[in-house]
Amino acid sequence: MGKWHLGKGDDTGPLGQGFDVNIAGNRAGSPRSYFSPYQNADLPDGPEGEYLTDRLTGEAIGFIESHRDKPFFLYLPHYAVHTPIQAKKSVIEKYAQKPAAGGHDNPRYAAMIESVDEGVGRILDKLDELALAQNTIVLLFSDNGGFAGATSNAPLRGFKGMLYEGGIRVPLIARWPGSIKPEQKCDVPVIGTDIFPTLLDVAGVPAPEGLALDGESLTPLLMNKGEFQHRSIFWHFPAYLESGRAVEGKWRTTPAGAVRAGPWKLIEFFEDGRVELYNLDEDISETNNLAATMPEKVADLHGILRGWREAVNAPVPRERNPRYRPDEETSEEKSGEKKEEEPK
Length: 344
Known about the structure:
With 344 residues, the chain is an alpha+beta fold. The chain is 25% helix and 10% strand. The protein contains 8 helices and 8 strands; from the N terminus they run αααβαβααββββββαα. The strands form 3 sheets. Strands 3-6-7-8 form a 4-stranded antiparallel sheet, with helices on one face. A hairpin with a 5-residue loop joins strand 7 (264-269) and strand 8. Helix 1 packs parallel to helix 3 (107-129) and helix 2 (89-96) crosses helix 3 (107-129).
């Protein structure tokens, strides 16, 4: 229910990828409007002015109610928080009365976050009301860091679309009363590919035969049971991503990859082979590149990163795209992502 942003055919949409229900999911990466009419072929319009985040939350609650008597999996990727930056007027006014602090000075962005937060609360309340909470694990996480044009990720460096911590370090919150002890914190780095093995584990479902899992089950961390295998984790982005107005230069990132091993993080930029090395325990803001002074650590991490790429057959571009026209308008500019549209 919500953002899919993959493919354009029946075989690549949600229903073609194993889901039984699809509400609002298609190839679009952002909505045309957060207010009805939505202009979304996979979401019937609601009353004029209905807010998309509220609508998707309501659809999710309806699904839970109708499936309360049997096992279910609900995936709710809200379109928020994403451009166009649009929120409910009453919530915007609430944040407009608050002074800016720590680089956070966008009432519309804050209001969008509050609507998502409110929706999460409504879903948790519904699980409590239906006496499903103790038999339901809830995972809440973001796909990337904050948008440069609307917020600050300080003290983290960078924003959405970058391999610096401001682009890839996000919250992960788990709730499972009776199984996960409340109010505990964990500082072990994990990654999105760990979610699927975790859900298989807690549901007692074996992995499909012949399927290689990229991640590890997080149940040892969530429930303090068994040993969690500490390992290196990887990011791979062999493409160019245009910058927005709030980021200097043409690119948010050029083709790059990264590896995290304990406190150490290495970023490799594929264009020229340049590497950057950081100790995140001592330098969370990634201001002190240690590559020149720690060549042995660079060689170690670089070898791990290259070995992983070979193991998973991750492509690295080697030739220029002959169709690239640097003076033409970027896809981001054409789509209007760089703009913060006025809210209704």
